[in-house]
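Record now logged underneath.
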Amino acid sequence: MTTTPETRVAPTADVAPTAEIGAGSSIWHLAQVREHAVLGATCVIGRGAYVGPGVVLGDNCKVQNYALVYEPAVLGHGVFIGPAVVLTNDTYPRAVNPDGSLKNAHDWEAVGVTIGDGAAIGARAVCIAPVSIGKWATVAAGAVVTKDVPDFALVVGVPARQVGWVGRAGVPLEPEGDGWLCPSTGDRFEFVDGVMTEVAGD
């Protein structure tokens, strides 16, 4: 395990020797971080959470209690993974092959979930690989994501459907003229080539 003096790892956590843990990160009780996983600076891995082999987290990520982040997931900076969230990795899950033999690592190909900077996945949501969650998007608690989520989108339900837009604060955007406004930060947004985009300040 590659760590720094500022890293905190609970005595009951299980961290692989080949994992890379960024400065100031914390790994709490009963969490497991597998081989070759990479955590950026000041990440927090909650009690009982699982981070699979080779998973990559950017800086300032939070993986809350009992969340399951299966390989080969890639998370950007500042991503929030709520309690008991599952990021899957098997498109056609089976315990056995068609001939009844037990499947092993060579019998299937793992596919991952990709999450952009600042996005948040609410408690007990499930993201079905290989979906991508756009930057600063919000997946509501309990949602099941089966298709890609655009930047700044708010999705809810089973299967998840888009019901609005959110800004960096996570607050729903409000229509304003030809664009959108975050009532929390005052940031403005507009569609550019069909993509919700922040308007540069003066």
Remarks:
- The domain at 8-165 is CATH 2.160.10.10 (UDP N-Acetylglucosamine Acyltransferase; domain 1).
- The two ends are 46 Å apart (CA to CA).
- The longest strand covers residues 161-165.
